Amino acid sequence: MKHLISLLLITMITTTLSAQNKIAFEVSFSEPQAHYVDVAMEISGIKSPYIDLKMPVWTPGSYLIREFAKNVESFSALNVGGTSLNAEKINKNTWRVNTQGSSQVKVTYRVYAFEISVRTSFVDESHAFLSPTGIFMYPEGHINKASTITIKPYKNWTKISTGLELLGSSANTFVAPDFDILYDSPFEIGNQDVFEFDAAGVKHEVAMYGGGNYDPEILKRDMAKIIVEQTKTFGVNPNKRYVFIVHNFNSGGGGLEHLNSTVLGASRNSYDTEAGRLRFLSLVSHEYFHLWNVKRLRPIALGPFNYEAENYTTNLWIAEGFTAYYQDIYTKRAGLLSPERYVANLANLIGQVENQPGNRVDPVSQASFDSWIKQYRPNENSANSTISYYSKGALIALIMDLEIIHSSGGKSGLDEVMKAMYEEYYLKKSRGYTDAEFKAMAEKIAGKSFDDIYANYINGVKTIDYNKYLNYAGLSLVDDAVSGKEAYLGANTSLRDGKIIVTSVLRESPAWISGLNVNDEILAMDDQRINNVSDPRLTEVNKFISTKQVGDKIKVLINRDGELLSIDVTLLRNPSHKFRMVSLDTATPSQIAVKKRWLMLK
Predict the structure, then answer these.
(1) Other residues' Cβ atoms within 10 Å of the Cβ of residue 392
(2) For the ranges 119-133, 286-300, 429-443, 536-550, which has the lowest average pLDDT?
(3) DSSP string, 440-478
(4) What's the CA gap between 348 and 578, in Å, rounded?
(5) pLDDT at residue 380 above 70?
(6) In this structure, is the dihedral angle defined by the CA atoms of residues 450, 452, 456 and 462, taken in order, positive or negative?
(7) Residue 484 exposure: Cα atoms within 13 Å on the Cβ side
C-alpha cells in the first residue's frame, strides 16, 4: 500500500510538472578536482517580468547562518531561444532575472564545494556530497512547487544515494514534491559501498564513502535492532525507505537529520573496537530518532521554515536534548549497551554539565534560543557563559522520565509523552507544538505539575536535585571528588610553537580572580622556568600546580603582547565533580518497579 501511494504521488507530481510551472535542475561536475558543482536550472510557465532566485542562508537541523551564497559564481540566464537575459544580484542571496516576456528561462551557475561536514557540500575527484540548501536556488514565492533533479555523475562514478524518489523509469532523475523536501534530501554521488536491510517494515540503504573496517552484516544487524526499538515507541515508522549516508574519514564524527535520510560522520578504522562501534551506533540512534522528534514532532517555530533568516525557538532542549537522552536509551534497549554502562554514561554526562560554569549562568531554554549565535560559534569564554542544550536537555529528559514513571506508578514514562505529542501535533493537527503545549502534555501524563522543573531547571539555573529523581529508581549520585583537596589554577593551556599559551580561564577560578588572560604565554612560576613536555596533555604548568596545596600563593610570569608581567595567584580547591551512581542499600518495591520500568529490566 505504501509503495502504491508513493507511485501515485510521483505520477501526480509528474503530471503537475508537465501541465503547470516546471522547475528542472541538472547537476554536473566538469571540474571536481577543483571542487565545483555545475548547476543548470530551467523554469517554465513564467508570467512575471522578473524572477527572484534565492539561495538559503542556513540548513535545517544546524542552527547557524552559513551564507551559502558566498560559494556561488558565474551566474547567468538565457531565454528559450538562447538569448542572454539581464540578471543582477540584488542582495546577499538573491539574483533577479528579467524575463523580458519569456515564459521559459534557463539559469546556470557554479558552486564551490570544499567544506567537509555533515551539513555542507564537498566535491573532489572521488565523490560528491551535495547538501541541497547550499546547491539549489528556489524562485521566490514558489517554494511549494515541485522540481526534478537530474544528476550527471562524473566519469566513472556509478552510484547515487538520496532519499528522493526516481522519476518514472529514469536512472538519475529524481523528483522533489516541494523545496522543503528537496532541501531535506542530500545526495551522495560516486562509488560508495551500498548495502541494504529491512527493519520495522522499512527498507534501509547504507551508503558508505571512504572505506573502513566495518562489517556490513554486523552493522545491519545492530542498526536494525535500534530501528525496531524506536519504532515500538511510536507504533509506526513514517517512511517506506530510509538512507544512511556515512562519510568515513581518518577522524570523523557528527550527524545531521533529514526527513527520510541522515548524514553521519565516522572514523573509518574504529568499527572493530567496542568503543568505536558503540559511538557509531549511538550516532545512528540519535539521528534516526529525529525521524519523529524534530522532523515531524517539532517546535512550532521550526516549520514552515524561513530559509533567509534565523528561526528562533526556546525548545531545542527537547528537539536535540531529548534525542541525546534517547540515543543511548535505545542502544540499551536493543541489547547493545549494558544497563551498568548506560548508568555510568549518565553519571559522566551529569559531571560534564555540572563542571561547566555556564550551566549556572545560562538557562537551557535561553541556550536554545541563542543557538544561532552561540552553539556553533564557541569562543574562549563559552564554557563560562552558556550550556549545551544537547547535554542539559538530556538531563531534563532524565528527570522528567523518572518523575513521570514515579508519579504514574510505572504506568507511563517519557515514551508516552513523546508518542502522545507525535499523535496530537503531527498526525492530528499537522503543526508544531508550543512550549506550553509540551509542558501540558507532560503534566497530563505524569498527573502532576511540572512548574518547578520548568522554573528551576529549564527557565532557571538552579542545580538539578539529581538524587530526588534518581532515588525514585533506588539510585544515588555520589561525588567522589567532594572531599578532594587538590589545588587548581583554572587555566587551560596548549602548546603553540613550543610556547605554553592560555586558551581558556574558568569563571571564579584562581586564574580568573587574579587576571590571567587567554593568549597569555606562561614563562615561569615561582621563578621556575616552565617548559613544554613531550605529552601535550601534561604541561609543566600541571606538574607545578600538582606540587602545591590549597591556599598556596604563587607568582606567574607571563608574556602578554610582548610585555612581561608578574601575577600573584592564590590557589583554591579544585571544585570539579566526579560522579558515579550507586544502588541504595535498601530499595523499596516502588523503587525497584521504577528502575525496572526506566531501564526496561526483566
Answers:
(1) 30
(2) 536-550
(3) HHHHHHHTS--HHIIIIIISS-PPP-HHHHHGGGTEEEE
(4) 8
(5) yes
(6) negative
(7) 16
